[in-house]
Amino acid sequence: MCAAVYVLSTVTGYVLTSALLLKCPNLLHRRKRETFLSRHISHRGGAGENLENTMTAFKHAVDLGTDMLELDCHLTKDEQVVVSHDTNLQRVCGVEADISSMTYAELPPYLCKLGVTFQKECFCEGGEDKRIPLLRDVFDAFPNTPINIDIKVNNNTLIKKVSELVVKYDRENLTVWGNSSNQIVKKCYKENPQIPVLFSLPRVLQLLGLFYTGLLPFVPLKEQFLEIPMPSIITKLQDPSRLTRSQRFVAWLYCVSFQVYIWVLNDEEDFQRAFELGATGVMTDFPTMLKEFMDRNGISKAQ
Asked: How would you label 231-255 residue by residue, b for 16+ Cβ within 10 Å and e otherwise?
């Protein structure tokens, strides 16, 4: 009997403590310093309005007032850090070759028309700007704009050179980097822990496991940014107040010491659901549509 009472009281204490810390994480963990807050995020610069990952796309998004540019990086044969999503150039340039096999001068231009990855049967036709830019071009052009960098390949030299560029342009407080690969994120953090990192996919799954076991409030986290598809977007809920435990978990993430970005949303119905659930920001291929939606619904810009 005494043993049962002891076990019951211990479990009850654990559950109550976990619930309290889950609600008030700052009781145990110091809130990470946030140097920027992004509500409006332009995916690949806005791949539905301009050719993805081009200077024209980035300029359009920044002129529109986006809070953050999301882009992807690779390394050329002559070790130049370029902004492009695909490892192979077939989809975007019509050339069967990897970026890593060519020097920067040898890289072909983008095709005139590209499919929008996260929008079915949608294509974007570009103007004169079809050049694959260097990361330093983007840093030069937009010194005050937060940038989200996806390190596309597990390459030590690429990670080192991106870090060097971030430091050179004094952007450690305006950059977040990472990948869905936990190995890449670990290397990024080891290379430069001053640059905030994204949660990798394995770490997101680990978060879920910690959440359901009640251990999450007790575990310190080095990551500061989480990019995920929203469960309510996938299931197309009609009433955001009727959330499953998993969906409430996502909403809770917004309240703790990191920012939650929902990707890649391309219609107003999904914008609405994401913000109602408490997402920090929305990533979109259509920055003009998102801006108009935010303005019309009185959703405040980042401060």
From this structure: bbbeeebeebeebeeebebbbbbee
User: If we measure between CA atoms, which residue out of 211, 191, 188 comes closest to residue 199?
Assistant: 188
User: What local confidence, expressed as pLDDT, does residue 277 receive?
Assistant: 80
Q: Is the dihedral of CA 128, 130, 131, 134 positive or negative?
A: positive
For residues 284 and 277, what is the distance between their CA atoms, to the nearest angstrom? Answer: 17
Q: How confident is the model at residue 93 (pLDDT cuts 50, 70, 90)?
A: very high
pLDDT band (50, 70, 90) for residue 11: very low
pTM, 2 dp: 0.85
Question: Would you say 155 and 75 are in contact if contact means Cβ atoms under 8 Å apart?
Answer: yes
How far is residue 138's CA from residue 150's CA, in Å, rounded to a whole number? 14
Residues in the chain: 303
Q: Which residues are 134's β-sheet partners?
A: 82
* Architecture of the 29-296 domain: Alpha-Beta Barrel (3.20)
Q: Are 172 and 166 in contact (CB under 8 A)?
A: yes
Q: Which residues contact 199 (CB under 8 A, 6 or more apart)?
A: 178, 185, 207, 223, 225, 226, 227, 258
**Residue boundaries of the structural domains of the chain:** 29-296
